[in-house]
Specification:
It is a single chain. The protein is an alpha+beta fold and 257 residues long. 21% of the residues lie in helices and 33% in strands. The protein has two domains: 5-62; 68-251, Umud Fragment, subunit A (Ribbon). It has helices spanning 5-30, 40-62, 218-221; strands spanning 63-67, 81-86, 92-93, 100-102, 112-116, 124-131, 136-140, 143-146, 149-150, 153-158, 172-178, 181-187, 196-199, 204-208, 224-225, 229-241, 246-247. Helix 1 (5-30) packs across helix 2 (40-62).
């Protein structure tokens, strides 16, 4: 069963705020200025409401932490990375409802985006934006094509994996440039790929993982609607891989490109 933390946090903030607010209004109406002991539920509500409100505002409108559970974004993101996601890069949205109330910027090719999986919106996915609304995008012979232009790849040799990503050792490491973003991808030349092309519908985005032959992405289930966007991944704040010395200190604080 999926636990919706955002909904639970919003509900807890609302309940504690209402309880504390009603008690304050009743005291004002009765003009009660005595210091008699407050009911326990009021004490708890007054104590927790400011904390819950702060966390709700921070998590809903500014930045939210996520953990990387899979290898689909290697070598950019490793299993065990903890990342921060900018919640206002693509517009300010109401918590739970996910309705945009303020427009900011639009996703760009090459951005790393967190979004709600279209097949099951209770799941958060992370992939790289490859194509924008109206683009003609194709994937053939391990290369991306945008509006008929092949995106070049520069060979960097064989990848050496470690920890939970050790199974990717000897994959081809390639340098790719998309828009203003320069990043590395992994390709397993001997593994067959899903190929084809499509026009990205208006209000949708085509996303792929950097670990091209180990990523469940838009090549398999289609595009991501704009209303499913959660935010833009911007930084790694922690990495924990129990199978490789625990904390990888070199990854802490790394910005994402």
């Amino acid at each position: 069963m999926h636990f919706d933390f955002s909904a639970a946090l919003t509900l807890a903030t609302l309940v504690t705020g209402v309880v504390a607010g009603i008690y304050w209004l009743l005291k004002q109406r009765k003009k009660d200025s005595s210091d008699r002991k407050e009911p326990l539920i009021v004490e708890y509500s007054k104590s927790f409401f400011p904390v819950l409100l702060f966390v709700l505002v921070l998590r809903s409108f500014i930045v939210e932490p996520f953990r990387i559970p899979s290898s689909s974004m290697m070598p950019t993101l490793l299993i065990g990375d903890f990342i921060l996601v900018n919640k206002f890069s693509y517009g300010v949205r109401l918590p739970v409802l996910n309705t945009k109330i303020i427009d900011v910027d639009k996703p760009e090719r090459g951005d790393i985006m967190v979004f709600r999986y279209p097949k099951d919106p209770s799941l958060d996915y992370i992939k790289r934006v490859v194509a924008l609304p109206g683009d003609k995008v194709g994937y053939f012979d391990k290369h991306i094509y945008i509006n008929g232009e092949r995106i070049t790849q520069t060979p960097l040799g064989l990848y050496e994996g470690f920890g939970q990503g050790k199974n990717m050792t000897n994959a081809l490491r390639q340098r790719e440039v998309l828009g203003s973003h320069e990043y590395d991808i992994l390709v397993m030349q001997e593994r067959p790929s899903v190929e084809g092309e499509m026009i990205v519908p208006e209000g949708h985005y085509f996303l792929m993982g950097d670990n091209r032959d180990n990523s469940n992405d838009s090549r398999y289930w289609g595009t991501v609607p704009e209303e499913n966007i959660v935010g833009k991944a911007v930084m790694i704040w922690m990495n924990w891989d129990a199978s490789h010395n625990g904390v990888n200190w070199k990854r802490l604080g790394n910005t994402l490109h």
